[in-house]
Design a protein that fits this description.
alpha/beta; Rossmann fold; 31% helix; globular
Length: 462
């Protein structure tokens, strides 16, 4: 197991230490070789990510069949949910010979995970090797699941770095992050902290007001990062400020990594013009089923065929297709034909391609949604992937806002949910929102949906 996974339970304790203590511990930690910090699996996945873009179509096909069969056989052997589902569908994973045959396997929904969590968890992986994570994704449907310690997080690190290397990333690069880190839950709190374990500068995405942005610019200039790693909405707020005040970006950087929210090509052009560098967009999710990113020379999103197996649902009236993913490598809780709730527009057949991989030109359904506080701060809804058990027992959650500084938190409880947990949920949400916000908790029978019938995080009347 990687040292990072072993130390993960202590992260909250580390975050509560004074900055000086974190700096000292982090500097010592950075001296350790990457193979110790990230574990043996990191090196194996890094080699895979570096070598596999040169693979032929037949090599990719053989790899995918092998990994699919491994995932499916494990699921059928050790996960009661899949044993029942495969038997009902007459599907025998040991006989899988072509990726086309996966269409005979039933789909997995978020509701399936909510209602069958234990039966989807492998009985062959000890609890000590499971890492529990939750996400609301882009839909407002809280889902809890297990990652596999020593595998899932090192794999993500290796493949994300491979995405970043397309625009020059290198080991020990200095990154500045504006990605939802809560530096302070107060509206007038600090906006800057340091992740000394990686030598990263962490900047709040909760305090990007005209009064506070000069602090950001000063901190960035002093830190001199090589790259920015951002929520698109946060980077666009910085860019908008610079444009409105006729200021130029003064900190040369090599590139920007933009993900977790939708970023249109026109918005990307704004960022590249203001920050004078290439911005690369990527797509992934906490469940770690599939991963995609733009190429070195192309603005199409390419799905890694070595990371997981991706399928696309039938097109809707707008030509958008749902992303359906099957995990590789996570044997603790394999996700088979998982409906992500995210929608994409496939690349045109005649589009010039950098990789012979599944490619899309647009990721839809991950808009730059945000709540507005009484003091005008914007809180990205992307930041509400809590990654702990706070939303467990809720079938759906949704924010409704009609005036700045006030919002309803609408929720649909399961039959197992107890109202005594509401206070903890409210504290967790308010920690993200800050002290210039008022939250109203409201139980509902149903949350509002999009015209496609999809749950959404936010209904805003502002």
């Amino acid at each position: 197991m990687s040292l990072e996974d072993k130390l993960y339970p202590l992260l909250s304790l580390y975050d509560r230490l004074p900055q000086g203590a974190r700096n000292a511990i982090g500097a010592t930690y950075r001296l350790l070789p990457r193979r110790i910090r990230y574990g043996k699996a990191y090196g194996e996945f890094r080699r895979l990510a570096e070598e596999s873009p040169e693979w032929s179509a037949s090599e990719i096909g053989e790899y995918q069949i092998r990994e699919l069969r491994r995932t499916l056989v494990n699921a059928a052997s050790y996960c009661p949910f899949y044993q029942r589902a495969f038997a009902k569908a007459g599907f025998d994973p040991s006989l899988l010979r072509s990726t086309d045959e996966l269409a005979n396997c039933p789909l997995l929904t978020k509701a399936d995970i909510q209602n069958n969590f234990n039966d989807l968890t492998s009985t062959n992986i000890p609890d000590s090797q499971k890492l529990y994570i939750t996400t609301g994704g882009s839909t407002g449907v809280p889902v809890g699941f297990h990652l596999q310690k020593g595998v899932s997080r090192p794999k993500e690190q290796a493949f994300m770095e491979a995405n970043w290397r397309r625009i020059g990333y290198f080991d020990k690069a200095r990154l500045a992050l504006v990605r939802g880190h809560v530096t302070d839950s107060r509206s007038e709190g600090k906006v800057i902290s340091r992740d000394a374990t990686r030598n990263w500068l962490l900047l709040s995405s909760y305090h990007l007001t005209d009064e506070r942005i000069p602090e950001y610019l000063e901190a960035l200039e002093a830190f001199a990062p090589d790259f920015l790693y951002v929520y698109p909405s946060s980077a666009l707020q910085l860019a908008e400020y610079l444009q409105r005040h006729n200021q130029s970006w003064r900190t040369p950087i090599q590139g920007m990594f933009c993900g977790s929210e939708q970023l249109t090509v026109d918005q990307k052009r704004i960022l590249e013009s203001v920050f004078q560098c290439r911005a690369i967009r990527w797509y992934g999710h906490s469940e770690r089923a599939v991963l995609a990113a733009e190429g070195t020379h192309s603005e199409l999103y390419y799905f890694w065929p070595h990371y997981g197996f991706v399928e696309f649902g039938e097109p809707d009236e707008d030509g958008l297709r749902e992303v359906i993913g099957t995990t590789f490598d996570n044997l603790a809780m394999p996700l088979v034909r998982y409906r992500t709730g995210d929608y994409v527009r496939l690349a045109k057949p005649d589009a010039e391609r950098e990789f012979a991989w599944p490619a899309v030109e647009e990721i839809a359904g991950r808009g730059q949604e945000y709540l507005v506080t009484a003091s005008g701060r914007r809180i990205s809804l992307t930041a509400f992937n809590m990654h702990d058990a706070i939303f467990d027992g809720l079938y759906a959650v949704q924010f409704f806002q009609a005036e700045p500084g006030v919002a309803e938190f609408r929720y649909i409880p399961s039959t197992q949910f107890h109202s005594s947990r509401l206070a903890k949920i409210e504290r967790g949400v308010m920690h993200k929102l800050g002290d210039d916000f008022r939250l109203v908790m409201r139980e509902v029978d149903e949350v509002e949906k999009t015209p496609r019938g999809k749950h959404t995080w936010l209904v805003s009347k502002l």
